[in-house]
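Input.
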Amino acid sequence: MSHRPLRAACIAAVAAVLVTAGPIPAADAEPGASGESVGVLLTRLQGLYQKAEEATEAYNATEVALKTRQDEERRLTAELGKARTALGSEKALLGRLAREQYQGTGGGISPYARMLLAGNPQAALDQRRLAAREGARQAAVLERLARGEREAGTLAGRARKALDSQQTLATRQKEHKDEVATRLKEVERTLAALTPEQLAQLGAREAADTDDAQRRLVDSGRLPTRTGTPTAAGGAALTYAAAQIGKPYVWGAEGPSSFDCSGLTSQAWAHAGRTIPRTSQEQWATLPKVPLDQLRPGDLVVYFPKATHVGLYVGGGKVIQAPRPGAKVKVSPIAANPLLGAVRPDPDGSPLAQFTPPPLPEAAAEGDDTGYSAEEAPESATDAETDAR
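Output.
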């Protein structure tokens, strides 16, 4: 682990804000003054970070839903325009038929009257066929006109409903965005109130926890005994993710200059030619599960009981991830966060016979690893693997 330049930067940045924002509430002002241990401080930070990440993923999900509603509203509006144009054409045709009928009957004499006044039987039959054809033609136009009116009315109702849904989602999106901002401000206040000694203690505790978790996972035999090769798509996703190392975590971001955790994984696979869900929860819920001991490079490793964090497996017990606000995309031990399980975006793909891993920067592993959670890793981390088998 690094010497936590993140927190030092937070202290400097937030301190400037706090000068004008007024005093910090007593509960957050001096978290160590009340005798809190490093473990308690770490747990508090973990809870705040996890709430922020949950709110971030909720915002991401709402943003995806909003885009879907916007696309639907645009599609319905276009269809409504076409329906109204067709309706106008049918009305024009009906008017032309009415004029033709009036003009062809010498001022209003019906085809049947003309048939009765015809000079010979053949002319009468011709007039009768003409009358029948004209009647059928007008009936068809009237039916198309009625159908067009019904279609236009239905589309108008659907367009209004889609617009209402869009406005509701926009409101919900703002609420989620405000919630993320609130959570992050809580983290900033807590960090800004810590002394350099407390920050150093937290850093050491995090490093020790991560090392211990990684050692126990490796010793458990739950990871692959050797690093296999990815599929062509998995290799492309891994190469893309490796190229993003060093870029900052920004909540709600999906590139190209910054990412959040699921923004990185979804974009990596999008650049590999495969569209996957935007959020970590949807990635976990919809993509096929894979046991940890069958991981191959390019697979997605999902964390925390609510599937609020995700990274991309590199091999050798490592993942590329965007850890949390203030950190940068980096290589981390797979056990840096509590494991939920793993999913595979291309279950039908065949591993390559040979694969040369993308080069990683020298500082690829530097910086914070954890995404933080206030909850313990669930027993279901193993259960998920069992289910996947």
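Residues 198-388 form a domain with the endopeptidase fold (from Nostoc punctiforme) fold (CATH 3.90.1720.10).
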